[in-house]
Request: fold
Amino acid sequence: MTDLLAKLLPLGLALLMFVVGLRLRPRDIWAVFRTPKALAVGLAVQMLALPILAFVLGRALGLSLVMQAGLILVAAAPGGVTSNYIAYLVRADLALSTGMTLITTLLASLTIPLILALSGVEGVGSGASLAMLSLAMLAVSLVPLLLGMGLVAVFTPISNRVLKVMEPVARVVFFAMVAATFIQNWGPMQANLAEVGVAVLALNLGALTLGFGAAQIMGLSWAQGRAIMVEASLQNVAVALFVAGSVLDQPALTVPALIYAVVMNISALVQIALRSRGAALAV
Reply:
């Protein structure tokens, strides 16, 4: 069952990104880079503030060195691919969310080894294997995204019909992926919740707070702030698991990532529910 889920996961991620692409225009992405204030704020939260927060939490809560390193690894991971679809569901700035995911994924092969080395984690190599994974994850997100955007640009009427069909399918796939995350990680979560659960929860809530606070301080729009909150709070756990198990060969480092996978999905569902309730009240 686990092997089947692992094989279907990339297809599910690609489907979600295709639907995101059907909602984007090239001008939307270009606008993010043309006026990069929001992008710079988001990347500062995602790539600088979050690892620092993980380091502080690990020390303040007295985690073992292994759990501290695992928590920092989660914070150093790039934004999750599903974050773009969640940004779409909560009506955040979709172009900003997509831009942040692509940049953090592209730079992950450099930033993760650097952050882990600075935090004192031993065994960090050249990052060659991580670079290959980053490129693979970029392909899973970028190729279907471009296909969706291309369909909109060339065959707009057809893309509208495709979107109407694919949107409900994508919602089912998304919630199935969330359910699969709970099923796969429930055992490790129960076994290690007492040791590292508070730190993982604090990291997720801290990511949301950092995103919201930075957006408010820098005068960004609500949609931009929501995008940064989504991106900062949803990490690419698959990358963290790969680094811990395959690159560093330290399976114990995967524990915080496994728990975070559950916590961040609960957090995402809460954000979706709050947004849906707000939209209903506004009607």
Remarks:
- Residues 90 and 272 are 6 Å apart (CA to CA).
